[in-house]
Amino acid sequence: MPKGNAGHFTAKLVDELHLQTVCDHAKCPNRMDCYARKTATFMILGDVCTRACRFCGVSKGKPGPVDMDEPQRIAEAARRLQLKHVVVTCVTRDDLPDGGAEHFCRTISEIRRATDATIEVLPGDFAGNAVAVNRLIAAAPEVYNHNTETVPRLYRAVRGRKAHYRWTLEMFRRIGARNTAIRLKTGMMLGLGETTDEVLDTLADLHDAGCRMLTLGQYLQPSPAQMPVVRYVPPEEFDQLGEAARHIGFTQVAAGPFVRSSYHAREMTEEELGAGD
């Protein structure tokens, strides 16, 4: 359990600036730990998602209009929290022509105006919109993180009909081809019915597409409305998969039951950027 009042400080600041965090909306088990370290993963473009992924606890439905002042408020939060690394994710906005790419870019710009922090973006797939992906590449975040979530066989069952495994790989290849300085990162959930061989094959695909940073965590059912857990993966199996990922060629790996996409993201990024120097 975290000590002190730093967690209350973070929660109060997020509330004061009328911001959303995936920590709250996705019911992350690490929320108190991260808030106590005065860090959070900001979620832009509202708190209602246009996708109906079966694993996610974020509200689904028809989103409201884009909050044009949100980028400045996120930058202010990053400044007041004295963040050295800022992670920005979003709800999926299939209702917007660019999927919210321009709003992402404005957020990056405002954070850079207010801080000297490195920036990690964690967007959706932009519904296959290559122009939107290119726009975000041009903003040059230090880390481009996109969650693969699961193995190809389970993609449709877990992520829905609009998500496509081949496009996930193509996005990473596109980013790497256009800006080699951007670090590529992905995350997967385990315990959805995948086999070890399927996980290893998927990791090989992702490495081949350019990913070098990886998170592996246990899927936890956010509420009875989401798909049930098929299997709880033992910690030692996470250790084994982490070692296998390093053997494949991933340079930064975090693997464990409570590991999530942006958990200790600053530490992973600093190590990766340092390794690149």
Task: Describe the protein's architecture and organization.
The chain is of the alpha/beta class and 277 residues long. The protein has a single domain, classed as TIM Barrel (Alpha-Beta Barrel). The protein contains eleven helices and nine strands. The protein has helices at 6-16, 22-25, 31-36, 70-80, 101-114, 130-138, 155-159, 165-178, 196-208, 235-248, 265-276; strands at residues 41-44, 48-49, 59-60, 85-90, 118-122, 143-145, 183-190, 213-218, 252-255. The strands form two sheets. The chain has a seven-stranded parallel sheet with strand order 1-4-5-6-7-8-9, with helices on both faces. Strands 2-3 form a two-stranded parallel ribbon. Helix 4 (70-80) runs parallel beside helix 5, helix 5 packs parallel to helix 6 and helix 6 runs parallel beside helix 8. It is globular. The termini are far apart.
Short structural description:
By secondary structure, the chain is an alpha/beta fold. It has 11 helices and 9 strands.
Helix and strand composition category: alpha/beta
Number of helices: 11
The percent range for helix content is: 40-55%
* Average pLDDT figure: 91
Secondary-structure element series = HHHEEEHEHEHEHHEHEHEH
From the spread of the alpha carbons, the general shape counts as: globular
- Give the CATH superfamily: Aldolase class I
Unreliable residue runs: none
CATH architecture: Alpha-Beta Barrel
Order of adjacent strands in the largest pleated sheet: 1-4-5-6-7-8-9
Indicate the CATH class: Alpha Beta
Percent strand: 5-15%
Mind summarizing the main beta sheet?
Answer: 7 strands, parallel
